[in-house]
């Protein structure tokens, strides 16, 4: 079940800054939301803590939680935590869905993301972030609750 953006997990502590595929999200809460529900949260921890949901309906309005606080809820999804690299990687088979590394106590970096296998046309690398037909390169989102909102 997806969490409404007004009811985020109690243990979720967002980073003050996320660098996501060449873009910055500063002093925000929800990285990606769809239909007023959190799809992707990246929180503070010894390694970044991830909550992730994927699309389960063709209409694009029903989602299912796939990762909860770095624990996979789907046997096809792997969560790889590296203490050495201070990173968390979510994979489906050989495909990296989200890669996030802790740069400091207040900042995390997401150099790679591909949510297409989860039904969302959102993907990117260190150069740019694609959201649907839009490309985001070097943008800053500051003091806003959500960076990417779909169907809101």
Describe the structure.
- This protein is mainly beta and 152 residues long.
- It has one domain.
- Helices cover 0% and strands 53% of the residues.
- The protein is built from no helices and 16 strands.
- The strands form two sheets. Strands 1, 2, 8, 9, 10, 11, 12, 13, 14 and 15 form a ten-stranded mixed beta sheet that branches.
- The protein is globular and about 40 Å long.
- The two termini are 18 Å apart.
- 32% of the residues are buried.
Features:
mainly beta; globular; 16 strands; 152 residues
What's the story with the biggest beta sheet? 10 strands, mixed
Radius of gyration: 14 Å
Helix share of residues? under 10%
Mean pLDDT: 91
Shape: globular
What is the string of SSEs from the N terminus onward? Answer: EEEEEEEEEEEEEEEE
User: DSSP strand (E) fraction?
Assistant: over 45%
Give the terminus-to-terminus CA distance. 18 Å
> What is the count of helical runs?
0
User: In the residues, how many domains can be counted?
Assistant: 1
- Give the helix/strand class: mainly beta
Question: Which helices and strands, and how do they pair?
Answer:
Blueprint: E1 17-20, E2 23-26, E3 30-34, E4 37-43, E5 49-55, E6 63-68, E7 71-72, E8 77-82, E9 87-92, E10 95-102, E11 107-114, E12 122-124, E13 129-131, E14 134-136, E15 140-142, E16 146-150
Parallel strand pairs: 1-11, 2-15, 3-16
Antiparallel strand pairs: 1-2, 3-4, 4-5, 5-6, 6-7, 8-9, 9-10, 10-11, 11-12, 12-13, 13-14
Put the structure in a nutshell.
With 152 residues, this protein is an all-beta fold. The chain has strands at residues 17-20, 23-26, 30-34, 37-43, 49-55, 63-68, 71-72, 77-82, 87-92, 95-102, 107-114, 122-124, 129-131, 134-136, 140-142, 146-150.
